[in-house]
Every structure is written in C-alpha cells, then in structure tokens.
C-alpha cells in the first residue's frame, strides 16, 4: 500500500476513534449526572431521556434498557409529555437494532399520548419516524405517504426546518423508487430551505449533500457525486456524528467502485463497517459488507465476494429489506455466472429472485438490472425465447427511468435552483443596501434638524426630494438588473436555437433520407450516428455556461463532419491548437465558433466550385484566448448577403454572448473579420477562463 494511502487511512481511523470518545464522554457526563440525581423526579427523567437518545447511535441495547426505566418513572410522575418522549426514543433504539415491529409499537404508544394532548407537531414527528421504519423495510411508497402527512403538518405550522427534513426523506424514497426528477427536486428544495435559514452547519444539511451525491452517482455524474460526499464526510467528522461518517464513507466507496478504484472502495467500506460495528448498527454493518462484496465482483474475485453476500442475505431477510435483498441476489447471480466454477442454473434462480424482490420494493432500476442480466444468461443457456422476453421487458423498464426527458427535467430543476439561489442572494444584498441607505438618511435628517431647526420647510423639501431620488435610483437599478437577466436568458436561448437550427436538422434528415433512397446504407448510418451524437451533445452542453475547450473542439469537429457529408465532402478542415494550451482545463462557451464556421461553409465554400479548406486555430495572447476561423471560400465580396449589408443572426447572437461575458468578467473581448485574397478570416478574443 502506498505511503500516502496509509496516511489517509490512519487519519480517518483517528478521527473515528476521537469521535467515538467524544460521544462516550457525553454519555459519561450524563451518567455522572444521573448518579448525582437519585431522587425520582422530573430532573432525573429528563436526564434518562437524554441518555436514551444518545445511546441509540452507540449502544441501542443499553438505550432500550434505560427507556423502560424512563417510561415507568414518567408514568409514576404522571408527566405524559416526557412519557411520550421516552417511548419515541425507545423506538429509535429498537429501529437501530432492526426490531422494526417493536419500533412501530413504541412509536404508536408515543403517538396516542401526543394526539390526546393535541400535540400535532410531536405526532407528525412520530409519523415521520414510522416512515423511516417503512423505509428500512423497503416499503418506499408507504414511507413517502408518512413523510408527506408529516410535511403537511409542518407546513401549516410554518416550521421550515422540519419541512426541509421531510423533503430530504421524501427525496430518498423517490430515489429508491427510481423517480429521479422528483428526488432531485425534493433534495434541492430542502437544500434551499437550509440555506435560507442559514443552517448549513446542521448535520441534516450534510445529509442532503450526501443524498444528492448518491443521486448523481446513479446518474453517472461521478465527479459531482464524489465532491458532494467529501463535503458531507468532512462535516460529519468535524461535528462528531459517527453514523453520518460511516454512511458518507460507504457512499464514497460506491463512487470509487464505479470509477474503477475498487481497492480504495474496500478501504472505505472497512472503515464504515468498524464504526457501525462499534455502534451495534446491524443495517450499517450489512451495507458495508454488501458493498465490499460488490467491490470484489468488480475486481473479478467472485469466490471472495460470495461469503459477503451470503452473510448479508441473512441479515436483510431478518430485516425484511426487499431492496437490498434484490441487490444481494443480483450480485450472487453475477458470481455464479462469471466465477471460475460456472453455476448457471443457480445464477438464473438468483436473478429471478432479485427481480421479485425489486418488484416488491418498487425499484424500477433494480428490476431492469435483474431482467437485463437474466436475458444475457438465458441467451448463453440457449433459452432464447425467455431471453428475448426478459430483454424486451428490461428495455421498457430502462426507458421509464433513464429517458432523455427525465435528464432534461433534472437539468431544468438544477437550473431553477441556481436561479432562485442567485435571486435570493441579490435580494439579500439589496435589502442590506436599503437598510444602510435608510440609516444614512436618518443620520442626515438628524443633522439637518439640529443645524437648521428654523428651516422646517426647506428640510421637508429636501427629505421629499431625497426620497424621490432614492426611489428613482431603485427603479433604475432594478430595471437594469431585470434587463440584464432578460438579455442573458434570451441570448442563451437564441444560442441554443442557433445550434439546434431547424433548417440544419431538416436538411440533415433529408440528407440521411437521400442516402437511404440511394441504398447507400453505410453512409446513411454514419451520417445518422454522427447527427444523433451531435444533437445529444448540444442538449447536454446547453445547460452549461462554460465547457472544456477539448469538449467544444470535439463538438465543432463533429458539426463540420456532418456538414461535409451533406456537401459530398466539398471541403476539409483542420485544427491547430497551441501546445501551451491545456485543453482539458481551458473553458469556453459551448459552440462559440459554430456560427462563423456555418457562415464559412454556406456563404464561403458552398458557392465555390473547387475543394474548400477551413482551418481553426487557438492560442493564448495576454490573458485572452484567441480563436481564429480561416476559409478559402468566395469571401464577402462574392457573397450577395454581405454586399447588401445583411448580418448573420448567428453573428449577432455571438456578439451578444461576448458582450455579456465582457460585462461579467469586466474584460474587452472582441470579434474581428479580415478579408483575405481568397476567403475570410474571423478572429474571436475571449477572456481566458480556467477550470482550476
């Protein structure tokens, strides 16, 4: 093991040990208080309840033992509110041990007391806790019903903090039901509430970050997922929340495993397992073991993986967790199908069992995985009819949760969140400015009143004039902000429309149809593949204001390849990128050069009778990225539109995009055109933007 990896592992282990010591220190302090309070009164009862709550993440068996003492004491003292609290905390401890039926019974006892005392908020909290039990049993739809009922109560009470907590749990259930747009909306709504309340230091906020990271991993956005999980892990370690540390380590391990870092993933799982074992958290231990087995399968070590899955299968059967049983049986099937000693019949049975559990849990994603792998296996076994049916069913399931429409919906929700966040920040800044202005006005009024007591009429005139001036300034300022935002939005929309030009799409489809009509299926297929790849790439990049130069060059090259096919290879193109440019780290607006290249093709080279050339070059000059498009077409002199003074719509949009960039960056990028002896040269200067 490399030395730096040993250092990181040692540091994480030390943090876990220190966190556990801190929690034990709190318990020791409470036990000391309990010993000093032998009298059976309300003070002792409150200490007992605090101990019960602390024990649920450390030693739930001890927590249950103390909860019984607390219930008896509360009943003796006839303090119903505290008895309800004792039952609720007892439920937490039973849940941590996986005793779901006992947990639900404890929550129901607490619920009856709180309902009798008209404690709607307390009752709603218990509804939420029951939802967590249903979640642990993989009954995600029922869990969400509870969460929504609790949310309605908290919304009526205008308790934003608890509303956010419910939204986080609702998002988790949606995620496990493969309803990803609904999940990301719930997470972002919860995140926004915490940020508005300035509660980004709360552990629930870190939990939201971790859950967003989990969702991004499911969507294949592993860089974003890792960033979110590391933020959550740092918070949990700093605030000594051991269960959160273990969960974040497990989630990080999943990201490492998905990105081919299986050794690193196993290290994270082992650390998570140690924490969960110390806390007697059977669910957490099972999760770490399951993920360790998955990591071994990714490494091709199937025989080593099987014991992990067998061990967790027993735990999840005891816990009645259909979702995780579906995962365990799927990977057991993988091991039997791919291991050295092939056991195909056993693999088939496990895939079928996995599918049944996935249906029970309502997880479309897991149903797809089971059916897809089952179809591959049955094809190998020669059972082609079943393989075809299962493959067809799998494709239907996949399309239901992985469609482009859902990805676009998620992107729109993310954009809406960013917009609302920016609007909130601007509003806060404006309000602070208004407060400062108001204070200054009051100070000036006091000075004027003291110095010019006899000039009341003049003072009144000045105050009114000043207020009118401020009002006018405010209107002008708001109008400028509104106009700038509108301009940004319109320009971005026009830029996307220009990239997705209906004429381009129509002509491309006609060209494909023409090749097919001529029975040139090979060229038609090449054209179609390139065209669909370009359309998908444009849609994906449209949600971003900046993308790496490397990615933009790839899109630009793909666009020119398609146009070359349409024009029967009437031109060739080349890229000349300065060797000092880090194309992965240098950022540019998506397809910023496309309008110039389009003009070169259709107004410069298309009218030309001989083969045309388009050369694209990129270099750095004085903190500017200089992008040049050269063509040897007919030039502006031979272009009728240019002679009539017409300006390309794409050029107008690009100028608007550049104006916005200049305004935001406070730079003076430019667009210049130079007529050549043969053709046209366009030079675009952008402020240099680096990703890191």
Judging from the principal axes of the Cα atoms, what is the shape?
flat
Main beta-sheet annotation:
5 strands, mixed
Radius of gyration: 32 Å
Task: Briefly note the structural class of the backbone.
Answer: alpha+beta
Count every helix, treating DSSP H or I runs of 4 or more residues as helices: 27
Helix content: over 70%
Quote the distance from N terminus to C terminus. Answer: 29 Å
Mean pLDDT: 80
Low confidence ranges? 1-20, 403-409, 493-500
Record the strand order, biggest sheet: 2-4-5-7-6
Total beta strands: 8
Strand content: 5-15%
Offer a quick outline of the entry.
The protein has about 700 residues and is an alpha+beta fold.
Task: Provide an overview of this structure.
With 692 residues, the chain is an alpha+beta fold. Helices cover 75% and strands 7% of the residues. The protein is built from 27 helices and eight strands. It has helices at 3-35, 42-55, 60-77, 80-96, 100-116, 120-136, 140-156, 160-176, 180-196, 203-218, 222-238, 242-258, 262-278, 282-298, 302-319, 322-338, 344-361, 364-380, 384-401, 404-451, 456-499, 502-517, 521-541, 549-566, 594-605, 640-643, 649-665; strands spanning 547-548, 571-577, 586-588, 612-621, 624-631, 670-675, 680-687, 689-690. A hairpin with a 2-residue loop joins strand 4 and strand 5. The two termini are 29 Å apart.
